[in-house]
Amino acid sequence: MIELIQFPWxxxxxxxxxxxxxxxxxxxxxxxxxxxxxxxxxxxxxxxxYAVPVIRDGRNVVFETGEDSQVIAKYxxxxxxxxxxxxxxxxxQFILWHYIENEIEGLTFKLNDAYYREFVAxxxxxxxxxxxxxxxxxxxxxxxxxxxxxxxxxMEQRLLPFEEMLGHRPFLLxxxxxxxxxxxxxxxxxxxxxxxxxxxxxxxxxxxxxxxxASARLSQFAT
Length: 223
Ligand SMILES: N[C@@H](CCC(=O)N[C@@H](CS)C(=O)NCC(=O)O)C(=O)O
What we know:
Layout: E1 2-6, H1 11-23, E2 27-31, H2 39-44, E3 54-57, E4 60-62, H3 71-80, H4 90-113, H5 116-119, H6 122-136, H7 140-146, H8 148-158, H9 160-166, H10 179-192, H11 204-214
The structure holds glutathione (GSH).
Glutathione binds next to α1.
């Protein structure tokens, strides 16, 4: 059985989780301890990777090879015949997933992290704070808490192109979901994880799309 090793709130893990749910395949979820103990992944990947998500599928252990790679999604797409990466729209998808994973994710993870105390267990908070501060500087989590309004406003602006696209079709690139739909869904799923936010009221098409994708199944579409 396919196993997804994850943190439940991680945007990139939500992408893969929704893809697996979409496929209706049976899969197992394994949550990593937050305490900085990545030994399960380190061992599985033969000391080549320590981030999440990672997929274990029998003897195959699948993980990203670069910031831009979509190794896991492409593996699941091929194995489960999901039609997420048609060659004819590879270029459009490439441009879009950069925007999604940089311009959108760069705000959404901070908005969620502003509430880390509510979803990271107390004993794990020290390593969480240290991990964030080593990358983003001292006091970053409190600063993100203070800057929520401004960041949410920026996010709303950056979501406008998706709102415009979804005014004309049910999914970002046409009548059925492609990889970029799941990618955006993962970033927004992370944004919504703390329970403190909603998708902006000024983005009604996006809100409808989010609900549509949350329950979409492969069997509804001819790939
Ligand atoms: N581009 C990678 C990014 C993965 C990533 O940044 N994962 C985070 C969690 S959301 C992580 O595990 N970072 C390393 C760490 O926490 O030590 C992907 O798509 O999987």
